[in-house]
Design brief:
It is built from 18 helices and 4 strands. The longest helix has about 35 residues, at about 535-570. The strands form 2 sheets. Strands 1-2 form a two-stranded antiparallel sheet. The protein has about 575 residues and is mainly alpha-helical.
């Protein structure tokens, strides 16, 4: 580890803290229907969209209607994206003349992008046409991100409103999120990315002769427009197979910094939206602090694990010490232009935020370094998390935290003046327990059936970790992978597809039930016995609940993979 590396990590943290309040303020005005600096341009467009779709922007929905609208919209998205892939051979903008996508892969990809997972069991530049990339994948990068954000806003309204029967209008929230937040940022940053060297064209691929005399095919296409929303919307699906390690997707250090800022920006901003809407910004900062503690712990361990290098190389006298001429450490699977610190930082951010984009290959990390991305997802993707999903996931843990606090002091638990009763606790637990049911259930099946065992390219604990990581990534709607798993098979495409559906939608239903229950409650004035939820004590309690829930649930599974591999590697026993 180096001082320069820690300074880069510190700089990133300072930037995120600095932009959180301003982003939160703007998003609050958007979802409250207030005027913004973009209103003179976008308000007429917004009104036209409501007219064409026959939506009354003043009519709000019951929580169940809100949830059904979201589910119906998502189902339509899966069907339409599946159809685009199956018909891409007859659709326009296919200069490579790529064939239709197979049925099981089309199902997996449709579910993946609609659920904001963006798991890719394929090589994008060899599988998806420009039309599929633009009209299918990029469109759902916007829509799936907007869906997650508006669900979080509905949850916030449940705390902010008093005895309300409605939580907003899904169609209005979705429109405003896309029109006022996602599109403007994507246009501006997308143009910046083009300036920095990302392609944005519809040209055919280019054939070039290398210095050795061989032939190389250089991909082209509308890269920048997909790149910006894959980061901003914490989607992660790359235009190229190498994702953000590809020079066309991530040309230099500046674009790398912008990308990781985009990943955290909206998720962090939503914590401030939470504080503003409940009329106490300290509440938002408390949630932000809990996320920050978990993030800093993760990035510190990841950097510490990767910086010393691979102990297996010691007997070969390989120089792995950081100097002015080399970054040192475990550089396998990493870009020289990013080095150890930026790679470890990117890996922690992308798995803390449910993004899934990568600028290095997690499969090549040291066991403990690779464990951090895995643990980030196993904790429920609540460390900032996917846009929207991270906040409502953390709020579910907050409900459990105040319930635990209530048990300790013998009082009915309250959070922001709303009494937390049996229904809310049961629904919160159901939403949280759905995730390990999918992760551990599918992993157990894949590790014993021949179709599952045919996937890992490695044996022993690392091969097992590749399977566990895949179902964790799918269920957590992350999309990153230990790339040593051959996942483009009917077995993995189908089971991972169902894991994504479970992780996204089965969790949302009980979560929305909590929203409806809380929205209908009156706000109880704080008293001398009220447990404050904006103090360091509450932050510590919230972090403890997240870690205890994750530790008790997943420690045996993690121990059989990364931990066993770590001890075996240091003992010189390679699998």
């Amino acid at each position: 580890m180096t001082v320069n590396g820690w300074l880069q990590i510190a700089l990133y943290c300072v930037i995120i803290i600095a932009i959180t309040r301003s982003i939160g303020g703007y998003m609050t005005r958007v979802f409250n229907g207030e005027r913004t600096f973009l209103s003179p341009v976008l308000r007429p467009v917004e009104g036209l969209l409501y007219t064409l779709s026959r939506v009354d922007e003043k009519e709000e929905q019951h929580w169940l209607t809100y949830a059904v609208a979201m589910l119906a919209f998502s189902l339509l998205g899966v069907v339409s994206l599946y159809a685009i892939q199956r018909l891409q051979n007859v659709l326009p903008f296919n200069p490579q003349d790529l064939p239709a996508v197979s049925d099981h892969l089309a199902f997996n990809t449709a579910v993946s992008f609609v659920s904001n997972t963006n798991w890719q069991s394929y090589v994008p530049e060899q599988t998806m046409s420009y039309f599929t990339q633009m009209a299918g994948l990029t469109v759902h990068n916007f829509l799936s991100a907007a869906t997650g954000i508006v669900l979080a806003v509905a949850f916030i309204r449940a705390f902010a409103r008093r005895s309300a029967k409605t939580v907003g209008n899904f169609w209005v929230d979705l429109t405003r999120c896309t029109l006022y937040i996602l599109l403007p940022i994507s246009v501006v940053v997308g143009l910046f990315f083009v300036w920095q060297g990302m392609p944005q064209n519809l040209n055919a691929y280019v054939s070039a002769t290398t210095l050795e005399g061989g032939m190389q095919t250089i991909g082209q296409g509308p890269v920048a427009s997909q790149e910006v929303i894959k980061m901003l919307g914490t989607n992660g699906g790359g235009f190229f197979n190498a994702n953000s390690a590809h020079p066309y997707e991530n040309p230099n250090a500046i674009t790398n910094l912008i990308q990781i800022i985009l990943i955290f920006s909206l998720g962090a901003g939503l914590t401030n939206v939470f504080g503003r809407m409940v009329k106490d910004q300290r509440q938002g900062w408390a949630v932000f602090a809990a996320m920050g503690v978990l993030f800093l712990a993760g990035v510190s361990v990841a950097y510490w694990a990767e910086a010393p290098g691979n102990p297996a190389f010691a007997r070969f006298n390989v120089d792995q010490v950081a100097t002015e001429l080399q970054s040192g450490g475990n550089m396998e699977g990493k870009e020289v232009r990013f080095g150890i610190a930026n790679s470890a930082l990117f890996a922690t951010i992308t798995t803390a935020a449910s993004c899934g984009a990568v600028n290095s290959m997690h499969d090549s990390y040291m066991p403990l370094g690779g464990m951090i991305p895995l643990v980030n997802m196993l904790l429920g993707e609540v460390i900032v998390g996917g846009v929207g999903a991270g906040l409502y996931g953390m709020l579910l843990f907050a409900i459990l935290a105040v319930f635990v606090a209530g048990l300790m002091v013998g009082r009915t638990p309250e959070y922001l003046g709303k009494k937390i009763e049996a229904k809310e606790v049961k629904m919160a637990m159901l939403a949280i327990l759905i995730l390990p049911l999918s992760i551990l259930g599918f992993s157990a099946i894949a590790t014993v059936v021949p179709l599952g065992l045919a996937g890992p390219l490695n044996s022993g604990p690392h091969g097992y970790a590749e399977i566990l990581y895949a179902y964790t990534s799918g269920t957590a709607n992350n999309g990153s992978a230990f790339a040593g798993l051959t996942a483009n098979t009917p077995f993995y495409n189908t089971t991972l597809g169902f894991a994504m559906l479970i992780g996204r939608f089965l969790m949302i239903v009980p979560m929305m039930a909590v929203v409806g229950s809380l929205a209908g409650k009156t706000i109880v004035p704080a008293s001398g016995g009220t447990f404050p939820t904006h103090t360091p004590l509450f932050v510590g309690l919230l972090v403890g609940v997240v870690l205890i829930m994750g530790g008790l649930t997943y420690f045996p599974a993690v121990a059989l993979g990364p931990l066993v591999e770590h001890f075996a590697m240091n003992a010189g026993q390679l699998f």
